[in-house]
Amino acid sequence: MTIDWTLRARDVVAGSLLSGSEALALLAAPPADHPDILAAAAWLRRRGFKMSVKLNYLVNVRSGLCPEDCTYCSQRLGSDADVLKYSWLSPDEASAQAQAGVAGGARRVCLVASGRGPSTRDVERVAQMAEGIKAADESIEVCACIGFVDEAATARRTRASTLTTTTSTPRAASTEICSTHTYDDRVETVTAARNAGLSPCSGLIIGMGETDEDIVDTLSDLVALGVESIPVNFLMPFEGTPMAGRWDLTPERCLRVLAPETEIRIAGGREMHLRSQQPVALTIANSLFLGDYLTSNARPRPALASLRPPHRPHPARGHRR
Ligand code: SF4
């Protein structure tokens, strides 16, 4: 399929979104098409979001100790990865950490807890954290990423404005990637967020051996579900997880998965996989995380050399969801 990406971008603005076969053609296009694809995507991004970049800041309110077994995650059941393990931060501790991100320019704070889902007490903790952050600056958006939430009333009680579900993995491969929850569990959380009037957010992770069809199917599902923000994670193959040693991504592949139809947030692994192309990625994506990720640092540190692959300049330790 030969596509003029410049003309196609104009049709997208007129309401004709890419079909599945066109999205597949974009992912598989030859290297000679790469500049045209980037230019078309950047043009779309500027039409929809101008040159703004939304800054997000993660507060890891509960770390490690997760009973789930997502193969990409250093906090998973049985992981011997060297990550921090602690139970819930107090609301004051979470607010104090959030202020560091806000002082750095973040307009959204993401409260992230490991685990399958919150208890009633956990929902109260998150609500207190959200209220504390809002009390300091009511313009800050608070996002809760606290595992599976299956009822709108529970989602509402978090006092968050956005509810994020764990990273979306392709439906076809989801049982190989995780045996303790299903693709439909994630869909249920997105639905609960939407029914509660919260903004649904659900991320994508690439680099785990997925096919182009898997990526297109997953993104199509997220769009059909009304997901308003899509963090795109690039696999960091952390030692101690089953994904250790998996280095499938190139900067070009990472860039092609980013698209400006919704809020696309460049998430974990950007330093490692986009490398010198990070500024280029922000001509396409419109949102990113400030500071460190859940179990990894945003910048290389000497003690983290164990993850450094032979020719990769930006190591990190783990993965965000
Ligand atoms: S991605 Fe979330 S649910 Fe899965 S193992 Fe990690 S912390 Fe647990």
From TrEMBL:
GO terms for biological process: biotin biosynthetic process. The keyword Manganese does not apply. Its cofactor is [2Fe-2S] cluster; [4Fe-4S] cluster. Keywords: 2Fe-2S, 4Fe-4S, Biotin biosynthesis, Iron, Iron-sulfur, Metal-binding, S-adenosyl-L-methionine, Transferase. It is an enzyme of class 2 (transferase). Residues 309-321 have a biased composition (Basic residues). Its EC number is 2.8.1.6. Residues 51-275 form the Radical SAM core domain. Binds 1 [2Fe-2S] cluster. The cluster is coordinated with 3 cysteines and 1 arginine. It holds the Pfam family Radical_SAM. SMART domains: BATS, Elp3. Belongs to the radical SAM superfamily. Biotin synthase family. This is biotin synthase.
